[in-house]
Amino acid sequence: MGGLRVDVVYALSEAQTVVQVLVRPGATVRDAVAASGVLRGLSPSPAPQFGIFGRRVSPERQLADGDRIEIYRPLRVDPRVARRARAKAIRGRGR
User: Fold this and answer.
1) What is the mean pLDDT of the segment spanning 58-84?
2) How far apart are the C-alpha atoms of 52 and 70, rounded to whole Å?
3) I need a surface site. Which of 32, 67, 68, 79 has the fewest CB within 10 A?
4) Are strands 68-72 and 49-52 parallel, antiparallel or unpaired?
5) Distance separating alpha carbons of residues 48 and 72, to the nearest angstrom
6) How many domains does the chain have?
């Protein structure tokens, strides 16, 4: 019986964890993440979101050999709010 070889990736600002796992054909993103152990010991709330090669996917999506599963963390700051704050700071320096 052959398996699917997939990478599970979780990145923090200071480090990136990459775990390669072998899962059975028909396995889902949820199965691979559980097999990797990457989320063990992390807070379960809010539920993480997942992507494969930069595209958001459901935890129930079936995997293909060579997939790279990315675990997305919640944003600390809304990017629109951060951009407005930077623009305001730049305008403030120019006057």
Assistant:
1) 91
2) 6
3) 79
4) antiparallel
5) 6
6) 1
The residues, any chain, with a CB within 8 Å of residue 20's CB and separated by 6 or more, are: 5, 6, 7, 8
Task: Give the CATH number of the domain where residue 84 resides.
Answer: 3.10.20.90
Q: Residue for token digits 């919640």?
A: 74
Range of the domain at 61: 4-94
pTM, two decimal places: 0.76
pLDDT score recorded for residue 56? 96
Whether the CB-CB separation of 50 and 33 falls below 8 Å is answered with yes
Closest CA to 9 of 50, 57, 55, 45: 50
SS3 assignment for the chain: CCCEEEEEEEECCCCEEEEEEEECCCCEHHHHHHHHCCCCCCCCCCCCEEEECCEEECCCCECCCCCEEEEECCCCCCHHHHHHHHHHHHHHHHC
Q: Are 9 and 29 in contact (CB under 8 A)?
A: no
